[in-house]
Amino acid sequence: MTVVSIPWLELAIFVPLAGAGLVGRIRDPLAALRWTLAFGAVALGCAVIAWLCFATGVAPDGTSPQDVVPRIFGEQVFSLDVLSAPLVPLVALLHFLTALATARTKMTRFSFTWLLIGWSLRVATFGCTSPETLSVLLSLNVVPPYLELVRRGRPTRVYTLHMGLFLGLLLAGLAASGSLAAVLLMAAVLVRSGTFPAHLWVADLFENASFGTALLFVTPITGMYTAVRLVVPASPPEWILQVIATASLVTAVYAAGMAIVQAETRRVFSYLFLSHASLILVGLELHTAVSLSGALALWASVIVSLGGLGLTLRALEARFGRLSLRSYHGLYAQSPSLAICFLLTGLASVGFPGTIGFIGAEMLVDGAITANPWIGVLVVAASALNGIAIIRTYLMVFGGRRHMSGVATHITLRERIAVLTLATLILVAGLWPQPTVLANHRAAEILLKTWSPSERELHEVTKSVLHSVGGASPPLSNG
Amino acid sequence: MPDLGQYAIICATIVLLAPATLLVVLGIPSLVGRPLSEQSIQLAGRWAIMVALLAALGVLGVMLSTGERHVVLDLGAWVSVQYSGHGPSTHYHFIIKFEFDRLSVPLVILTLVLCGTVGAFATRYLHREPGFNRFFVLFAVFLLGMVTASLADTIETLFAGWELVGLSSALLIAYFHDRPAPCRNGFHVWVVYRVSDAALLLAAVVLHHLTGEGDFDQLTGNAPWPHAQVALTPSQALTVGLLLLLAAAGKSALVPFSGWLPRAMEGPTPSSAVFYGALSVHLGAFLLLRMSPLITISVWLAIVIVGLGFVTAVYAYLVGTVQTDIKSALSFASLAQVGIIVMEIGLGHWVPFLWYVALVHLLGHACLRTLQFVRAPSLLQDYRNLENALGERLPRPPGPLVAAPLRLRGWLYRFALERGYLDAILIDYVVRPFVRLFQWFDRLERRWTLWLDGQQDSPRKPVPQELHPQPVEQVR
């Protein structure tokens, strides 16, 4: 048995699912956490190896002759390409760190079983290129947060309405053809990404669901992946792209402005996410090589940096409850490491020099100004406003009269590991960006080729071109 | 045996590596929760700055001995991608390149001398302060930012240094963060800096598109500063120049952004001295000097710069005369000089020699002001001792505003006391409408969400306002 013969990608998808089956039977929260981490570590390892196999050309499409799914369904369902290969381990890492940094105070309210199920669904989504299977996975993805809202007795209508609209548009788009299909699918993407005015569900979800569940549901920016997989091959007409780019741009600036005036940390986070997700969509919809490369680079950076920021806020909430921004909390002395992590992840998300987001943001602005100088100005404005929101939140949470607590609230070992992992990723990718930028650029080139009118109808061509990048051979047949 | 040129390159590399190493040495232990001791921090800071200073002097020595006025340290493309798909070919690159010339070498030496002096001062001033390590980490960020911005040979590299300087400055203003006022003032400064950063970023990208490069050499030709010539039309130069002027105005507290300068005095005296009295406040003027070829070809840009410098100088002089605390008085005195320096830079359009005057003015003023800031706390103590010995207050001469005509005097006093109403204007006409607009949007969204939830008559449970700390044993 060689490295290639092991179905790493399928293991990365199904190990968490198996873990969910076991963890669901465990009543002790600590034991459940330990098993979650054990299964999670294996799944994360598999995801990383699948990516390495792809990156080194050992497994050109991330599949293996021993894959089980093709034997059942008769076709290859899960595979990697230049776009999804780095996203799969990133999404797995985000889930692992979320489990790792879960505080004991939250264990009774946070379901590890559903975390593992969500993990499996999201990795499967990012490892799937077939439109039909992808739409099924996207539909399944919306279920765990809904069930949690029901379980917690929180209002579900806002979430249900928006996700219902998303699924309706998605299915209608798949059923339709031509430009109408592209329009419907793009509308579905906008709802899923929280583009104005269909953005209320994001803040609502963060207010009502557990922070971990909301974070994992939104941070991978599944809407962008849907756009790349379903909308780009449908080649939407130019006027639609302009309308959508405008809507995304308005959302980016609007959400950044809203982030500044929020009075609760969770709502700040939700609007920061909305602004970033919209900026990434702007980069996609401008469809220039540089803007698209920038958008893809920013996408990876947002998963890491906003994911890290969310985990930091979650760790603070585990100690101090939900944090209002109507007064200063003075938490620096209690949690200096969390303060550093907050700053690092927050600044990385707005593209601070030396961090993972810097080059992505630069390229996005560059591409935007090429397309239209005013778009560039608005992108810069959104980024500047996001930076203001980050520092305002930092000063409100960590500044002010020193909070005196009778109990120790310093960072725990598990949290420190999560913090250091994220910090390493943010700084290493920030100081040595060329490999990630090159990978994103290759993906952008392929996407732009598939955007060309001469190739618009051929989704299969899209897949084969994506697979052929890096000298890879066509997908392996397991029939 | 390597020639002098190679020595210069080695020295140039050390100038950059030393501050970066200092940041790594201080930053990594802080990140892993094991900050260094005061003594180790002091030692690391001292050595890093000393090595960098000696290396900078080495570059200067080589330049003087060989007559070479333009030493370039090209680290190559940090990021480079070439697109060759459908449509026109596209190329994106981010070059990291540093230049040592008549402009950058004096500034980097000034930076290292002042940072070294103030660093030594701060080790005593902040001895046993809880935030000692935090101060020096931010100090290292500032130093790296200043060195990067001073030596940058591409506008993107300059932007990176510019951002590092801005962040460290804002966080150091909020150094005493257990009081709300420094946090508020740090935030205020950060907001102004973000506007400034955004303008610089736009200028960088616009420049990139007009010239195809962000490289100063490509922009200004290979002639050493200040004799370079730029291949842009006057209108293009005006566009880029105005964006750069906006960036410089934010960073150097020129009108209408001057309100942040006295707020910056909330930080500890060492940071006030080195940042807002000496280096950070001159960074805008340095940017204008670096882009002086743009001023050469655009007379309108020159006029705007001279006008802004003049207004700032007059404003700072008037406001400075009524300040009642020494740090604010010094900050406005500093701003008045910065205004004059900016005027000199603008006048360089007609008399290029004034750019040298502006550079010398900048260097001398930075040194003098640092000395005054560092001396300020002990000067007050000396005055107090003197008054105690005399048994009465020292005589206080009337301010210069008494010389104003009687009808104007009252208005001038009010104007000066209210610091020209600049903060009030910005807050009332920019910040407050912005915040109110978005708060209104927020209320609308909440009502809309409640309506969708069918809960408009039964508001949701409010978010708890009080902190309920959970012990780490339960968190763990």
Q: Into which percent range does the helicity of residues of chain A fall?
A: over 70%
Total number of β-strand segments of chain A?
A: 0
Give the count of structural domains of chain B.
Answer: 2
Number of domains of chain A: 3
The biggest beta sheet of chain A, please?
none
Strand content of chain A: under 5%
What oligomeric state do these chains adopt? Answer: heterodimer
**What ranges of chain B have pLDDT less than 50 throughout 5 or more consecutive residues?**
462-468
C-alpha end-to-end distance of chain B:
60 Å
Q: What fraction strand of chain B?
A: 5-15%
Textual characterization of the structure:
The complex is a heterodimer of chains A (479) and B (476). Helices cover 73% and strands 0% of the residues of chain A. Chain A is mainly α. Chain B folds into two domains: 4-379, no CATH class; 421-467. The longest helix of chain B has 38 residues, at 353-390. The radius of gyration of chain B is 25 Å and the shape is globular.
Considering the chains and any ligands shown, give keywords for the structure.
heterodimer, A: 479 residues, 22 helices, 0% strand, globular, disordered C terminus, B: 476 residues, mainly alpha, 2 domains, two-stranded antiparallel ribbon, 70% helix
Entry summary:
The complex is a heterodimer of chains A (about 475) and B (about 475). Chain A is mainly α.
Question: What is the secondary structure topology, with strand pairs?
Answer:
The complex is a heterodimer of chains A (479) and B (476).
Chain A: H1 8-23, H2 29-56, H3 69-73, H4 84-100, H5 104-107, H6 112-126, H7 131-141, H8 143-152, H9 157-175, H10 178-193, H11 200-208, H12 211-218, H13 222-231, H14 238-261, H15 265-286, H16 289-320, H17 336-349, H18 357-371, H19 373-398, H20 413-431, H21 434-451, H22 459-468
Helix pairs in contact in A: 1-2, 1-6, 2-4, 4-6, 4-16, 6-7, 7-9, 9-10, 9-11, 10-13, 11-12, 11-15, 12-16, 14-15, 14-19, 15-16, 15-18, 15-19, 16-17, 16-18, 16-20, 16-21, 17-19, 17-20, 18-19, 21-22
Chain B: H1 4-31, H2 38-66, E1 71-83, E2 90-100, H3 104-125, H4 132-151, H5 155-173, H6 180-211, H7 216-220, H8 234-251, H9 260-263, H10 269-290, H11 292-297, H12 299-320, H13 326-347, H14 353-390, H15 406-417, H16 422-453, H17 472-475
Antiparallel strand pairs in B: 1-2
Helix pairs in contact in B: 1-2, 1-4, 2-3, 3-4, 3-10, 3-14, 4-5, 4-10, 5-6, 5-10, 6-8, 8-10, 8-12, 10-13, 10-14, 12-13, 12-15, 13-14
